[in-house]
Amino acid sequence: MMELILVLLFAAHAYGCGISAYDPDRNRVVNGVDARRYSWPWQVSLQYRSGFTYRHTCGGTLLSVDWVLTAAHCIGSRTYYVVAAEYDLEMKDGFEQIIPVGKVIVHPQWDASCLSCGNDIAMIKLASPARLSEKVMLACLPKSGEIVPHDHPCYITGWGRLYTGGPIASKLQQALLPVVEHSVCSSSSWWGSTVKLTMICAGGDIRSGCHGDSGGPLMCRGVDRKWYVQGVTSFVSSLGCNTLKKPTVFTRTSSFSKWIHDTMMQH
C-alpha cells in the first residue's frame, strides 16, 4: 500500500496542476465552441447508469488522482461513473478512463430545496485512482478567500445544452466568460440578493453555461500561467441560459478551500 501511495504522489508531482499539454485554443470565443481535444485535461464527465448504458449528467474537475470536485445538486441516489479523458460523448477514442464512484461527500449546509442559498458543492472520491497523463491532469485550487477581479477572462467548459431547450453537446465545449464582480452581479438590475458572497458570476451576454454544464469548472489562469478552478457551475436564469445581465452563477471555490482540504484529508 505504501508503495502505491508513493507512486501516486510521484505521478501527481510529475504532472503538477493547472498545466495542459494541449494548450486551449483561446482565440475562439464567440458563444460556445468545440474545445481543442484534451486541452482541459482536468474536466470529467459525471455519468449515471440508465439501464445497460451510462448517460452524462454533470461535469466535474479532477483535483487529485482520487478526488473530483462537482456541484451538490448533481448528486442523487443513482449509480455513477466518472469518465476522465472524455471528449466526444458519442464516440470512444480509447483514452477514456471510466472510474466507478467510491464515495460522495455533499457540503453539510447544502439545501436541495434552495439552490440559490449556496453551498452547492460536493466532492467525489473515486473507487480507484485516475491515471495521470498528458490527457488527464489536475486543476489547481485557488488560495482560500481569493477574489478574481472584475472582467478577468475565465472559461467555462462542459457538455451542456447548446442553447436553452436544445440538445446537450456531443463534443466538449468551451466559452470565454469574463468575471462579473459581486457588487455588479448583486445589483438590482442583475441578480440582486440571489447572489451571495460565496458565489462568483461570469458572463452575462450571449455566452453562458447551460443545463448539463452543472458541476463543471470555471477555469481562470493565474499570474503563474497555471489554470485554477475558481468556480463550480451552479445555476443560470429560469428565463434562459444566456439571458442578458443574468450571468452564469458558480460556487466560489475559494470560499470552500478549507472544507475541500479537510474532506480530502479525512476520507
Plain-language structure description:
- The strands form two sheets. A six-stranded antiparallel beta barrel has the order 8-9-10-13-12-11. It has a six-stranded antiparallel beta barrel with strand order 2-3-4-7-6-5.
- It has helices spanning 2-15, 182-185, 257-266, and strands spanning 33-34, 43-50, 53-64, 67-70, 80-84, 97-106, 122-126, 153-158, 173-180, 199-202, 217-221, 227-235, 248-252.
- With 267 residues, it is mostly beta strands.
- It has three helices and 13 strands, in the order H-E-E-E-E-E-E-E-E-E-H-E-E-E-E-H.
- The radius of gyration is 17 Å and the shape is globular.
- The protein folds into two domains: 2-19 and 41-138 and 257-266, Trypsin-like serine proteases (Thrombin, subunit H, Beta Barrel); 153-254, Trypsin-like serine proteases (Thrombin, subunit H, Beta Barrel), CATH 2.40.10.
Summed up, what is this model?
By secondary structure, the chain is mainly beta. 10% of the residues lie in helices and 31% in strands. The strands form two sheets. The protein has a six-stranded antiparallel β-barrel with strand order 8-9-10-13-12-11. It has a six-stranded antiparallel beta barrel with strand order 2-3-4-7-6-5.
